[in-house]
Each structure stands twice: as C-alpha cells, then as structure tokens.
C-alpha cells in the first residue's frame, strides 16, 4: 500500500494504486441498539456502583430526570452492591460489627468512605437514614442502573464477610480473591427473587465500568473486567428485566485513544463521557425525551449567561423570554429553583 497526498491522508484517506483514494474511519463505532423500554422523565431511577454509575446518574440529574445517585457512595464489586440492595429491601441496617475505627475516624465496611464521622453514633444515624431513603426510592423506582467496577473482593479474616471498602485498615486483616461467575449469578438471582416481590415492575440496566483498577495490576484488572463482562452477558440472557449497556465497549473499542482520557490516563475525559451519554440517550430515551433534552440544554445555557450590561432593556427582555421558556416546561419537570432564580434577577433590576 502506497501513501500519497498528505492533505488527503490527514483526513483519513489512503491511496491504493489499483483503486485510487478511499476513506478509512479511524474508529470502530458501536451500533446503537434502541431498547424496547424507554426511560421517561417522570420515571424514578436508582443508580448504584462504581464512579461510572456516578457519571450516568449525574448526567440524568443534570437533565432533570428523577434519579437517586449512588446513595451508598462509590461501590465497586457486585457482591457488595447486591448486599446493600438486599438490606434496603429487607429494611435492615448494617450489622454492628461492620463499623470500624481507622485513624480516629469511624467508617462502615459496607459503605464508601464518604460515610465517616468522629462520633460513631452520629455515623450510625447517617447510615440508618440513607438506608431508609433507599428503601423508599427502590420501592418507587422504575429503573435500577448497576455498574460493576471490579470482581476483586476483600474478605475479613475474622468473619469471612466481604467489605465494600477497606478504609485503610492493614491488608493483613483481609483475604483478597476474585469472584466467580457462579457466585455472581447466584447472588444476583437471589436479589432478583427479592425484587420480584418488592418491586415487580422494575427494569435493570447493567454495565461494566471502563475505568481500570490499576492498583490490582493490569493483568488482574483484565481478568476481573473479563469476568464481569461475561457475567453481564449471562445475566442479560437469563433475566428478561435486565439489559446490558456497552459503556465498557464504547470506551475500550470505539474511543480507544488516550485523547479520550483524563490526565491520569484511567478515567474517561469529559468528551468521552458526553459521547457515552449520547449513545445512552439513543438507546434508552424516546425521541420526545431527546427533544426535551435539547430544549433543556439551550435553557441551561441561557441560565448561565452573564450579561455585560445587566440593567439594559435587552437583558430584561432576555430574562422575560427565559422565564416564559421555564414556565412552558414546568408541567414536564420541576424547574421551581430556576424560575425563582430568574424572577429574583428581574426583581433586582426593577429595584435599581
């Protein structure tokens, strides 16, 4: 193959003597497969899992969906995720022996280190409150989004229980192991049996986080991600309520370039997150909901507008138009805060 014309080659063209120039797309875009069931703006959604679940839930919240975003903090392994959901269904709080003191601060082995306090009683109150809230949210949820980050787990040597977070307790207190496909399938099946009674109409989206767990080493990370991907395929095949979203494949195969990563070369960049969100939108949102998102993005841009002359007539008219746009969507989503903000801006101008 002979390359010619740098201008054309820079645009992705190659030259073949027998055929002339032809274009090659330097990506392998994933085909969008629209899900039969769609997430509506009015649907309650609960997101739990790794930091990738954080990204999805924040995007949903930012676009006015009703979402509970990682209420237990970032949770990486499937076993801990299933355990937390089962406890919420059963209306149980974490056992007393799950509270641990590390460097003068109290934590809970089942939760992220966001749950911490110098006073154990205060921490227990916070934890019990969040479990009560999740029980309520899960009972009303139409969608449950679970993101698995790693199949590597740490088990306490004193009782064999798996922890969601070691909270900087010395490593000799734990045994590290890799979950098996059989364990993930069994524990998910047990959770599904509980969900069928607790919230039979719930739909579940599962995905594998594309964020590498390099602290475990790249070899073990690869084994872990492979296991999680096979598990997701298995669960989506066997449970009608479950669908798989290919966030992992989008990052690893479609956007397989370090320009789509943050400076740590581990987490997806803002551009990558936007692209993944767009594929998610095409997969799980109707054309009506996508139309609303487009409208809302324009309104959000107007809300962040900072005028050079706040007292000008043009800016007053701009605010009045913006207020009308907000009132027009008030029956669809809650924009009380935004309406109050714009109203106060207008009052401030009138008083000056």
UniProtKB/TrEMBL annotation:
Source species, domain of life: Bacteria
Protein name: GSCFA domain-containing protein
An MF annotation (GO) of this entry: hydrolase activity
EC number: 3.1.-.-
EC class (word): hydrolase
A Pfam family of this chain: GSCFA
Keywords assigned: Hydrolase
Domain GSCFA: 46-280
């Amino acid at each position: 193959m002979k390359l010619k014309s740098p201008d054309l080659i820079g645009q992705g063209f190659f030259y073949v003597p027998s055929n002339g120039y032809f274009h090659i797309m330097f990506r392998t875009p994933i085909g969008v497969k629209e899900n039969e069931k769609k997430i509506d703006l009015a649907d309650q959604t609960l997101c739990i899992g790794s930091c990738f679940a954080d990204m999805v839930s924040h995007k949903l919240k930012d676009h006015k969906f009703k979402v509970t975003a990682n209420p237990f903090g970032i949770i990486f392994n499937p076993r801990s995720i299933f355990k937390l959901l089962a406890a919420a269904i059963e209306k149980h709080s974490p056992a007393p022996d799950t509270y641990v003191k590390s460097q003068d601060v109290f934590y809970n082995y089942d939760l992220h280190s966001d749950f911490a306090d110098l006073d154990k009683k205060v921490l227990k109150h916070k934890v019990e409150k969040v479990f009560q809230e999740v029980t309520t949210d899960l009972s009303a949820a139409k969608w449950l989004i679970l993101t698995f980050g790693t199949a590597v787990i740490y088990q306490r040597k004193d009782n064999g229980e798996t922890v969601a977070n070691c909270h900087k307790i010395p490593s000799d207190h734990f045994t590290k192991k890799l979950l098996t496909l059989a364990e993930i399938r069994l524990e998910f099946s047990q959770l599904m049996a509980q969900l069928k009674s607790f919230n039979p109409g719930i739909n579940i989206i599962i995905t594998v986080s594309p964020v590498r767990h390099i602290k475990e080493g790249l070899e073990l990370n690869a084994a872990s991600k492979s296991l999680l991907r096979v598990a997701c395929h298995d669960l989506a095949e066997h449970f009608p309520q479950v669908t798989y979203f290919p966030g992992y494949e989008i990052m690893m195969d479609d956007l397989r370039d370090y320009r789509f990563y943050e400076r740590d070369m581990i987490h997806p960049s803002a551009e990558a997150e936007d692209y993944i969100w767009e594929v998610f939108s095409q997969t799980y949102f109707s054309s009506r909901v996508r139309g609303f998102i487009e409208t809302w993005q324009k309104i959000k841009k107007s809300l962040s507008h900072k005028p050079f002359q706040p007292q000008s007539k043009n800016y007053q008219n701009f605010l009045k138009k913006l207020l009308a746009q907000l009132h027009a969507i008030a029956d669809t989503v809650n924009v009380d805060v935004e309406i109050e903000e714009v109203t106060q801006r207008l009052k401030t101008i009138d008083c000056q």
